[in-house]
Amino acid sequence: MLREFAVEPALLGEWNEFRYLHEKFGVQRARMIALFPKKWPRMVYESATGFTEMQRKRLEEWLARKDKFLVPGGRDYDVADDWLHSAELAHERHPFHAILATTNPRGHEKILLSHGDPLENEPLFDCSHEDFMPRKPEEFVATSGLLLRCSRQIIFVDPHVRANDRWGEALSAMFGCIHPEATVRYCSIDSPQGIEKDFRLGELRKKWPRFIPKGKVLEFILLGKDTGMDTHNRFILTERGGIKFAWGLDASNDGSKDVVNVMAEGTHAAMFDEYYNFSGRSVLERFEIIGSKNS
């Protein structure tokens, strides 16, 4: 659902292109920019030689918010003085969704040129905020993997999670995208009560370690039903943005599909606050599950 673009630094060094493009990226736009190479922000800044003082300030402010739109590239930068050639070579090994550049001398099919033409008319640039998703482990990765890979605070929210394989297999697949230093939390809601609730939490403690990488810690939190907000929808929330799942975070593997949405900025901020700071929620149970799954 989120797409990763390579963007030539020199393209953003042209004021008209920067003014047009800089608001087109971020989780809420479903488009992210690859950090390619690691010095990409400095390359953008150094290319903006024709900017006025006010324009350069706008560029500096945008680059200061780079965590909103940049994702770690993890690709080799092969040709030191040729960004476009390096991007094309990197694409062969680990494809970008598309490459935005100032020129396309080799006629590469994945390169988009702007130069005043609305990129929204280009199919490669048209990234949907809503889509159907088959409920399979690999599809959870395809939908949320880029967001998980670039985030360091991750919260799964499923009011009715169970310890069985349907939830565990989806969680296990998504853990493969999560950075080793990221903190991971799983929130559920207090339902049902009494012995059945205790049994459900006991099953999570017993069964879920085998779905989590060895030594990795997942914090499980059971919250009270005291916010007044509907507790049906499921979410993946991070400090960068969020994805809403209309039906569940379990892999049914029965051919069914879910409708998934990239969350709007304001909605995401409210939900992240609710499940990170527990605003409007009481914490009933809180414990750690330590993974035992070998790579």
Largest sheet: 8 strands, mixed
Largest sheet: spatial strand order: 6-12-11-10-7-8-9-13
Helical run tally = 9
Order of helices and strands: EHHEHHEHEEEHEHEHEEEEHE
Residue windows where pLDDT falls under 50 for at least 5 positions: none
Distance between the termini: 26 Å
Oligomer: single chain
CATH topology label of the largest domain: Endonuclease, Chain A
Radius of gyration: 21 Å
Mean pLDDT: 91
CATH level-1 class of the largest domain = Alpha Beta
**Which descriptor suits the 3D outline?**
elongated
**How many separate structural domains?**
2
CATH architecture of the largest domain: 2-Layer Sandwich
Helix percent reads: 25-40%
Number of beta strands = 13
- Strand content is 15-25%
Helix-strand category: alpha/beta
Attribute tags:
295 residues; Rossmann fold; five-stranded parallel β-sheet; Endonuclease, Chain A; 13 strands; alpha/beta; single chain; eight-stranded mixed β-sheet; 23% strand
Task: Walk me through the topology.
Blueprint: E1 3-7, H1 9-12, H2 15-21, E2 31-35, H3 40-47, H4 53-64, E3 70-72, H5 83-93, E4 98-101, E5 111-113, E6 130-134, H6 137-150, E7 153-157, H7 165-175, E8 183-189, H8 194-207, E9 217-223, E10 234-238, E11 242-245, E12 257-262, H9 265-276, E13 283-290
Parallel strand pairs: 1-2, 1-4, 2-3, 4-5, 7-8, 8-9
Antiparallel strand pairs: 6-12, 7-10, 9-13, 10-11, 11-12
